[in-house]
Amino acid sequence: MSSSEEGIYVCIQADSTKQFPAAVTSTQQVLMMFKLKGVEPKVLLVLEDDKSILKEISPSGTLPVLFRNVKGSREVYEEVGAIEDFIESLPGPSLKGGKGSLMAKIQNLMLLTKFRSFLNSNNTKAEDTLKLHLEILDKLLASRKTRFVESDSLTFVDSYLLPILLVIRVAGAKKGFQIPATLKNVRLYIEEGDKSQVFQETRPTDSSIIDHWCRR
């Protein structure tokens, strides 16, 4: 596939097989957002040890990165927030939360950061901190009256949260961590996410998650 052809492209990190996307939460997030809008971008897999393909596209060299070729010019979107805004601008229903959205509160929990700390230290303090923030999430989810965070259908906040919870439960289990059974709202939310076709179609395999997150 030539990256000079017109269209929407998304560059994402390849896994160790070099054939599929790596189990990076922002990768699944972006792929979910596109599917929720009914748009299929052209996917370019970039090897972790060979990012030369990005030099002409992304000055920062960060992944994922989205670009659109149209009428001889190229638009580049390097941050997930900018990618989200671009996808939201595409035809279709609005998928961004409005006033009162829980997105900011969920992002402020920094669950992925807390999980990385647990993986790197694997001590009781880091595990307790992760559990504490999952408990806060459980309380946030208890306040909702919908199937997902803000609607009975998936929105952008779910595309952010579900991939993170997936990594925590799969890679966490490999390291002896389980999401407590007492967090019933979190567990119910995960169950609903697992039933979603969009989530399943973008979901990395368990082996890919373990390879990416537990190989260190």
From TrEMBL:
<dbReference type="GO" id="GO:0005254">
    <property type="term" value="F:chloride channel activity"/>
</dbReference>
<dbReference type="Pfam" id="PF13409">
    <property type="entry name" value="GST_N_2"/>
</dbReference>
<dbReference type="GO" id="GO:0016020">
    <property type="term" value="C:membrane"/>
</dbReference>
<dbReference type="InterPro" id="IPR036282">
    <property type="entry name" value="Glutathione-S-Trfase_C_sf"/>
</dbReference>
<dbReference type="GO" id="GO:0006821">
    <property type="term" value="P:chloride transport"/>
</dbReference>
<protein>
    <recommendedName>
        <fullName>GST N-terminal domain-containing protein</fullName>
    </recommendedName>
</protein>
<dbReference type="GO" id="GO:0005737">
    <property type="term" value="C:cytoplasm"/>
</dbReference>
<feature type="domain" description="GST N-terminal">
    <location>
        <begin position="27"/>
        <end position="89"/>
    </location>
</feature>
<dbReference type="InterPro" id="IPR004045">
    <property type="entry name" value="Glutathione_S-Trfase_N"/>
</dbReference>
